[in-house]
Design goal:
This protein is of the alpha/beta class and about 250 residues long. The chain contains seven helices and eleven strands.
């Protein structure tokens, strides 16, 4: 088990978890999710920053629709998957291996997106704030930012400390969750049982409420922050599945 606070820097975790996080159905959902992001933001073209792009599910789909796309991720192995996906679709994407706390291209993008709970990984809250400030700087005036995370309210409503998934090949994934620090962070431990062997990894993420995320975006310089309960634009209410925020950089 990886106990390093920067668990996301462990390439072994991404290699181990890749088939669990990115089954075929997640790739099939990419086109719908990209369409929802574009509808939420009213974006019809231009330059897009896909922050923590992972294996490129959304970057490749955006490029296939004619956008100029930069996919940024810290994981070399996930970017290798992304490059192969781009080649398979015959699209061109700029892939950048860099930490989101560092990446900065002032005024370069019309749309930035952080999808699939890829925000809140860092040990200190201030580091997550820095990411929002960097994104604000990367956007051109009037640019939009979409962020998609767990959200404290929907997580609390359906919280289950432990569950398991059995795969067609007989493997069993046991997931255990623990709330930390007065409901500000979530620690998850994954145990994959394959016959007589078992492997375990753990990770911790921040969980923000809707009002907290809105305040963070406001403090980073964004305006017109709107909250939704999913990428389909449903309200952030008792039926919310996730926390989605759409924010605008002032013109």
């Amino acid at each position: 088990m990886n106990d390093d606070s920067e668990w996301f820097a462990n390439e072994a975790f991404w290699a181990w978890s890749f088939p669990l996080m990115f089954p075929a159905r997640r790739w099939e959902q990419a086109a719908e999710e990209v369409g929802q992001v574009l509808e939420l933001t009213g974006t019809e073209g231009g330059r897009v920053l896909d922050l923590a792009c992972g294996p490129g599910r959304h970057s490749v789909e955006l490029a296939a629709r004619g956008f100029e796309v930069t996919g940024v991720d810290r994981s070399a192995s996930l970017l290798d998957h992304a490059r192969r996906r781009g080649e398979d679709r015959s699209v061109e994407v700029e892939w950048v291996e860099e930490d989101m706390r560092v990446f900065s291209r002032p005024g370069s993008y019309d749309l930035a997106m952080s999808i699939f709970t890829s925000f809140g990984y860092f040990e200190r809250h201030e580091e997550n704030v820095r990411v929002l400030e960097n994104v604000h700087g990367c956007l051109a005036p009037g640019g939009r930012f979409v962020i998609h995370v767990l959200g404290r309210e929907p997580l609390a409503r359906r919280f289950e400390p432990t569950d398991f998934t059995e795969f067609d090949d007989g493997r069993i994934l046991v997931q255990h969750r623990e709330v930390l620090d007065d409901w500000t962070r979530l620690r998850a431990t994954w145990l994959l049982v394959d016959g007589a062997t078992a492997e375990r990894f753990g990770f911790t993420v921040w969980i923000y409420s809707g009002s907290e995320l809105r305040s963070m975006l406001d403090a980073a310089g964004f305006e017109s922050v709107q909250l939704y309960g999913a990428l389909d634009g449903r309200p952030y209410d008792l039926d919310a599945r996730r926390l989605v925020a759409v924010a605008r950089k002032p013109s």
